[in-house]
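Here comes just one.
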Amino acid sequence: MNTVLHRNHPLFKLYKPEPSKLSEGSIIKFVGQLPEHADDYDDKVAVNPWLAKTDDTQILRDGFPKSIVLPSGTTGTEEGIQEAVKGIQAKLGLPCVLKPPRGRGSMGVKVVHTVEQIRDHMANLYKDCPVILAEEFLNGEEITIAVMPPGEYDQPVGTQSCHWTLPIVIRSQHINDVTPYSGVQVVALNSAAITPERYLEDKEEYEKVERRVKRAGEIMGTKAVVRIDCRRDSQGEFKLFDVNMKPNASGPGRPGRDNWTSLVAMSAEAIGWDYPTLLVNQVRIATPLQSLEK
């Protein structure tokens, strides 16, 4: 079954069957994150500061954009809106980004340049969510990185004892400074795996962001592929702005969808894995349900 489990999903209570109900020698596995974590780690308001605070290596300490949390309860009045605008201007400046703390792709994400745009977009977002996340606008190069868990993989990867990354994918063709949602524009038209030449042009910074996303995967204990979006700030440093616990990992193949690849599949192609090979490797690292009984 291809679905995302979470605490309120009808299948939540079934994903850990009682040992007494399993036939002798049966092994049930699943590909994905722990359902308990799907809710927690999908909340940017909670997960970004938690990762920065929890990381004892300190590599994530300054790894996220500056942000302000705007609950509707405190900004539902004219006075509250004025205070929110003042806070945004003082801490983040303009332009800045307003977005829901949870979401799919870039839906609801907008770069706002004026006070009027802040007011208008806050009003739109509050129709669907009680909390808004305001972030500093990262105006540089945007990339995404697929982070894989430890396990046994096909060559050229082999055995990995810790989290590791597939090649970086460069995002481009932003619309109003935001990468379009894949349902609007297929990623094959606006994204490509980084070339060795481009990687070497700024190897130090690319290696640094790879260490950051791997560390995020380690702290969260991810059980399957996750994808983390990053973008350079005005100083050229990559910041992590979106941890995708349920990344699109679809691939081409069906009639009329030959160019409907995903960012994860695109990254896998860069190491010589076609789409079926990517799927086989994801199944190989599936998590046995019995190991979760503790």
